[in-house]
């Protein structure tokens, strides 16, 4: 049960504490932030409203702890990460309970997220030992005009303090995807969880605490973004920011200064369907890609671009599958659950009403109860409709009929987003040409967009992000190259 058993020390009365210097603490502000259950629309949890002074203290502790951690052997860092992973998976049930109540994630998916996160941490530990255990050796005479009088040794060293900011939809998995690489690389870590998903993150952080990481190395500060958001991202003690979320990331990137940034900021992932595609396969992937977790995924299919000649058949197949989706509370493991906030539901409804006013074909009746929105397929969507371009982050999927592949590629590339896309065809040559033409970080061929497996590179173009994620890329991004050059008094050649 959340906040009970081994997690009892993270809860004080009805409010969860924040984590600093290896201890669970109440904020000196005396204030809390309410977390509303998307299903009941009532306050489910409360977390501390940390102050800027507490942020300053956390940063000082992180800076000090990092110096010691950087001297910790790689095998020891990996050992602690493996231990944290095991503890996390052992306590998957209470953490999954938090995900269900905080973000209305279906029960089965909530458990899967926690287990996947443990696996990610373990993989990171193993990969980090391999990557960071190797360096480079260069000799000077490979460059014209030089004798072999210089030996160059390179290695990867930590950046310092990493600020990690995960999103609400995968608060545990996308937190550990930042925490693991940061720690194995020798950095300290300050976590600012999303409001919806904060309690899940606090439980996850306690698993690292139980694993025995040094005091001050990991901190988790909760509070309102309006009060500590900019203060955190612009803090001079931060040496790297890894952020996943919406267009707030654009603002962060403009203010952050000269530090490495890893940003994933959403997408309008297009699904291009050619005449020769297996329409049953397409329909199954549209359901999985467009409606799983109520469409609240950066990699959800967010617009279907289908050739006119097969559009009628595809729409009918998708409609039949939509009719079978189970709608209801996450506790019942339904396919479609309430979206995360009332403001999100209102935004989605605004897109639906705009499409209705402009003549889109509703394949189902639009229905909403509170934050719960029934899945809706919109056919005959035109480019003048908002839903053609904006990211709904809900169970609403537009279908745009196209008359050529070029038309589909043009629509995809006209978007200010460029996270992922997919193309369905039996012709691999066409698929590769379309993939090369699509301005997205990843293109899936004959499958819906997806983030993962977690060791695959994951990146966006344009407003979808900066840098690349995936375990190896994240470790590389959270380190820098250190070079030492040995100068010899005279040229020296092996066996010379």
Automatic annotation (TrEMBL):
Active-site residue list: 264
Single GO MF descriptor: glyceraldehyde-3-phosphate dehydrogenase (NADP+) (non-phosphorylating) activity
GO cellular component: cytoplasm
Keywords linked to the UniProt accession: Cytoplasm, NADP, Oxidoreductase
Subcellular location, principal: cytoplasm
Entry EC number(s): 1.2.1.9
InterPro entries reported in the protein's UniProt record: Ald_DH/histidinol_DH (IPR016161), Ald_DH_C (IPR016163), Ald_DH_CS_CYS (IPR016160), Ald_DH_CS_GLU (IPR029510), Ald_DH_N (IPR016162), Aldehyde_DH_dom (IPR015590), ALDH-related_metabolic_enz (IPR051020)
Keyword Cytoplasm in annotation: yes
Domain Aldehyde dehydrogenase: 24-483
Top-rank lineage group of the source organism: Eukaryota
Catalysis: reaction(s): D-glyceraldehyde 3-phosphate + NADP(+) + H2O = (2R)-3-phosphoglycerate + NADPH + 2 H(+)
Protein family per UniProt: Belongs to the aldehyde dehydrogenase family.
UniProt-recorded name of the protein: NADP-dependent glyceraldehyde-3-phosphate dehydrogenase
Organism: Salix viminalis
């Amino acid at each position: 049960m959340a906040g009970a058993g081994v997690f009892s020390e993270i809860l004080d009365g009805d409010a969860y504490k924040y984590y600093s210097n290896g201890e669970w603490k109440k904020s000196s502000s005396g204030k809390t932030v309410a977390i509303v259950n998307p299903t009941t629309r009532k306050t489910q949890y409360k977390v501390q409203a940390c102050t800027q002074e507490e942020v300053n203290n956390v940063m000082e502790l992180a800076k000090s702890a990092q110096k010691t951690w950087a001297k910790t052997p790689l095998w020891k860092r990996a050992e602690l990460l493996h231990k944290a992973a095991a503890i996390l998976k052992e306590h998957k049930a209470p953490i999954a309970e938090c995900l269900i109540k905080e973000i209305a994630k279906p029960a089965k998916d909530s458990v899967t997220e926690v287990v996947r996160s443990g696996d990610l941490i373990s993989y990171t530990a193993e990969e980090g030992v391999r990557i960071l255990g190797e360096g480079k050796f260069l000799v000077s005479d490979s460059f014209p005009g030089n004798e072999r009088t210089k030996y160059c040794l390179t290695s990867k060293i930590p950046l310092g303090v990493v600020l990690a900011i995960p999103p609400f939809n995968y608060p545990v998995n996308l937190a550990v995807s930042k925490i693991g690489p940061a720690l194995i690389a020798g950095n300290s870590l300050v976590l600012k969880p999303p409001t919806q998903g904060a309690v899940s993150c606090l439980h996850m952080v306690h698993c690292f605490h139980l694993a025995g990481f040094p005091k001050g190395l990991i901190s988790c500060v909760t509070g309102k973004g309006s009060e500590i958001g900019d203060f955190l991202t612009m803090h001079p003690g931060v040496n790297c920011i890894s952020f996943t979320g919406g267009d707030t990331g654009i603002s962060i990137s403009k203010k952050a200064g000269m530090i490495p940034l890893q940003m994933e900021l959403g997408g309008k992932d297009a699904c291009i369907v050619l005449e020769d595609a297996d329409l049953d396969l397409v329909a199954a992937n549209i359901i999985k890609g467009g409606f799983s977790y109520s469409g609240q995924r950066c990699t959800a299919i967010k617009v279907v671009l289908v050739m006119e000649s097969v559009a009628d058949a595809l729409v009918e197949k998708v409609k039949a599958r939509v009719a079978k989706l189970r709608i209801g509370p996450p506790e019942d493991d339904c396919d479609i659950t309430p979206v995360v906030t009332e403001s999100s539901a209102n935004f989605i409804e605004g897109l639906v009403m705009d499409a209705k006013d402009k003549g889109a074909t509703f394949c189902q009746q639009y229905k909403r109860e509170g934050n719960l929105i029934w899945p809706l397929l919109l056919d005959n969507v035109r480019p003048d409709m908002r839903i053609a371009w904006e990211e709904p982050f809900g169970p609403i999927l537009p279908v745009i009929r196209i008359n050529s592949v070029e038309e589909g590629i043009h629509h995809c590339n006209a978007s200010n987003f460029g996270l992922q896309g997919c193309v369905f065809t039996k012709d691999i040559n066409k698929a590769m040409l379309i993939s090369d033409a699509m301005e997205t970080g990843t293109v899936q061929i004959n499958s819906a967009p997806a983030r993962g497996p977690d060791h695959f590179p994951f990146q966006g173009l344009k407003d979808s992000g900066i840098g690349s994620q995936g375990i190896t890329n994240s470790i590389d991004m959270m380190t820098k190259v250190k070079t030492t050059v040995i100068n010899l008094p005279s040229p020296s050649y092996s066996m010379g």
